[in-house]
From TrEMBL:
CDD domains: NAT_SF. PROSITE patterns: GNAT. It comes from the Bacteria. Residues 30-166 form the N-acetyltransferase domain. This is RimJ/RimL family protein N-acetyltransferase. GO terms for molecular function: acyltransferase activity, transferring groups other than amino-acyl groups.
Length: 166
């Protein structure tokens, strides 16, 4: 599986106009939630489904809940809770995109949407919200990487202006 590196030059980007979706979808950041067992479980199940179903995922393996909490949750999600963007529908968490900021650069890590909500525009809106936050914070560029076999995510990134570095 080959990863494709993509970048978005925010100096050359027009702020995105958020896609219009069903008002039953709720978008928020992890920072709006308490660090509770329920929140950790919701995040684990969302991330697990998304990673295991990613066309670029190498195996059917995923961390146990305990390993996820011990090795990933605090360092990657809770630490970046202000820039971990989530979507829910009727209380169920259905999508996520993550952003880590390093100086004037951002890195978009994982983006996932549960199977039953794919193709509805959730991933696009999550990434648009991430781009808007980057513009507000003066971030100059965003990088990401996508499995070469993940055509839907490649299309979303290209639609939003991400390109392969020259």
């Amino acid at each position: 599986m080959k990863l494709i590196d993509l970048s978005l030059d925010l100096a050359k980007t027009t702020p995105p106009i958020l896609s219009s979706l069903d008002p039953m979808y709720h978008f928020f950041t992890l920072s709006s939630e308490e660090n509770t067992e329920e929140v950790r479980q919701k995040l684990y199940h969302l991330v697990r489904e998304g990673v295991l179903d990613d066309p670029g995922h190498k195996s059917g393996d995923f961390e146990t809940y305990e390993d996820f909490i011990k090795n990933i949750y605090l360092h990657h999600y809770w630490k970046h809770r202000e820039t971990t963007f989530l979507a829910s529908h009727n209380g169920k968490w259905i999508g996520l995109t993550t952003l880590s900021i390093h100086g004037h650069k951002g890195h978009n890590g994982l983006t996932v949407v549960t199977k039953e909500y794919r193709g509805t525009g959730i991933a696009t809106v999550l990434k648009q919200k991430m781009i808007l936050i980057c513009l507000e914070k003066g971030i100059q560029s965003i990088t990401t990487h996508v499995a070469s076999t993940n055509n839907p995510m490649l299309a979303i990134n290209c639609k939003l202006g991400f390109t392969e570095p020259s």
